[in-house]
Amino acid sequence: MNQSLRDRVLDWIDGDPDVDDRETLQSLLDKGDEVELHRRFDTPLTFGTAGLRGPEMAGPAGMNRYTVRRATQGVIAWLGEIGVDSARGVVVGRDGRRGSESFNHEVVSVLLGAGVKVYEMPRPLPTPLVAYCVKQLDAAAGIMVTASHNPPQDNGYKLYSSDGSQIIPPNDEIVERFANVATSPALGERTSTHHRWISPDLLDQYRAHMTQRFAVSNSDLAITYTPLHGVGGATMMKLFARAGYTKVTPVAAQFEPDGTFPTLPFPNPEELGALDLAMARADEVQSDLVIANDPDADRLGAAVRDGAGWHVLRGDQIGWLLASAMLPTMEDPRDVVATTIVSSTLLRAMARDAGVRFAVTLTGFKWLARAAGDGVLRLGYEEALGFAVDPEVADKDGLSAALALSHLADDLHRHDQTLMDRLDEIEARFGVHSIFQLSLRAEGPTGLSAIVNAVQSLRERPPTTLGGLAVSAHFDLALGYEGLGPTDGVLLQLGESGRVVVRPSGTEPKLKAYIEITSPPSDATSLAEQRRRGESLVADVRADLESLLQL
């Protein structure tokens, strides 16, 4: 066996606090399984989208107790380097995944061992509450143990800055640099004077603020709700009740936290079929609306009754709907609405029409949360079902977004209308925007290189047409675009007919293509006909892309 690999494995075993993980690695060494050891050691987890995310397994390429210990030591050193006083404390939370309780314990123990004040969530709770508490407590940072909507075998470690938003470069690089040289830490106990439990009163402040903001009066809007086996269930049901919704039916089979996600292949409300169980339950009780959170409740999925069936709303459509309700209330010149480069272009037109400042950012809420600059972000959304509807939370929040969307649905319901009617109004006024996200998964040891090669090929040899539409311009996003910083991806402009953005996922081994086909408002052609034409063009573009982007 390669001596360098052996030395790395032995060095890791020497520091790993987990007996089972040490035995696993030692067994692989004893068997001489170089392939598996290379998988676990050659590509360590790195701080990507505001933290770490990956499969639970022994070794630096996995989420495990040693990885979490090292990352937490990196956080402590990072705070010292950037001059943020750790005495302000660190908020620590976790979701309901397998391993989250153990990893949460490691975070708390390392922080307390270093003399850092800890504000710990009393139980597994939604991610947005960590972001909220960081701001309310003026804490130095926040750490959330979660893999959000990733597959069951994954876990993660999300890091917030002192302003309650996700960290951005170069902070992630600083944390990683210190984590890579971390040694065995001193460990503390919860009996330490530095330990605090997050107060129930503070969590109630969040509930009070959001329910007052989006309150209704004894609504008879019938809602079916699912947390997709995550931690949003009890919190969201309390919010619904407090906000005035009297007819909310939970999906019992998906209500309690369960890290095995037994009813779902992928616990992601974006995935095809993820809302099927909720829609079936909604049919049984004759609900008007389905609301879903992902497992850590920072995202919002929804479906609305459409005739005899259901229409599952895309993230862009939810964004348009929220904007239609919120833009008319924005009168302060500091108010800003924002979306990302891969989201629909429709929000820009809606903001311009309302006279409200608009911003576009790179993909991810670490950028969206900062989009307002010296203003106030009143609405930020990304097509991947992430929505920020209140500046008290500097991150996406599926709980408050659920209340905001339900508030609009209730208002329409009182006027014998639905969210589908509002979508008709929006597109009749601003033009039909047909959208689709093509997601190509690339598993296995060659998955990452296949994604890199596919993007590079598109960058160097862009197509001249897609779906019969001419590619009028192409942009390498790694060189920057319209004032944005560099990011890995390619944008293909299809003249006035739309555009395509292709980029690697920041959280999963996927290559994503975001297709948008647009048509101007027309009195001569019905919305249904415009949509059929748009969907046909999307299908043609998608077919060409699938041929080009073979992984």
SSE arrangement:
Layout lengths: L2 H13 L3 H13 L2 H8 L9 E5 L9 H18 L7 E5 L5 H14 L4 E3 L6 H11 L3 E5 L8 E7 L10 H10 L14 E3 L2 H14 L9 E4 L6 H11 L4 E3 L25 H10 L3 E5 L6 E7 L2 E4 L2 H12 L8 E6 L5 H9 L2 E5 L3 H4 L7 E7 L3 E3 L9 H17 L4 H12 L1 E10 L5 H14 L4 E2 L2 E2 L2 E4 L13 E4 L4 E7 L5 E10 L7 H22 L3
Parallel strand pairs: 2-3, 2-4, 3-6, 7-8, 7-9, 12-13, 12-14
Antiparallel strand pairs: 1-5, 4-5, 9-10, 10-11, 14-15, 16-22, 17-18, 19-20, 20-21, 21-22
Kindly give the count of domains.
Answer: 3
The helix content, as a percent range, equals 25-40%
General shape = globular
CATH-defined fold name of the largest domain:
Alpha-D-Glucose-1,6-Bisphosphate, Chain A, domain 3
Distance between the termini: 31 Å
CATH 4th-level superfamily of the largest domain: Alpha-D-Glucose-1,6-Bisphosphate, subunit A, domain 3
- Lateral strand order in the biggest sheet: 1-5-4-2-3-6
Task: Characterize the quaternary organization of these chains.
Answer: single chain
Radius of gyration: 24 Å
Mean pLDDT: 95
Low-confidence stretches: none
Q: Can you identify the CATH class of the largest domain?
A: Alpha Beta
Helix segment count? 17
Second-tier CATH architecture of the largest domain: 3-Layer(aba) Sandwich
Number of strands: 22
Largest sheet: 6 strands, mixed
Strand content: 15-25%
Structural class: alpha/beta
Name a few traits of the molecule.
551 residues; alpha/beta; Alpha-D-Glucose-1,6-Bisphosphate, Chain A, domain 3; 3 domains; five-stranded mixed sheet; 20% strand
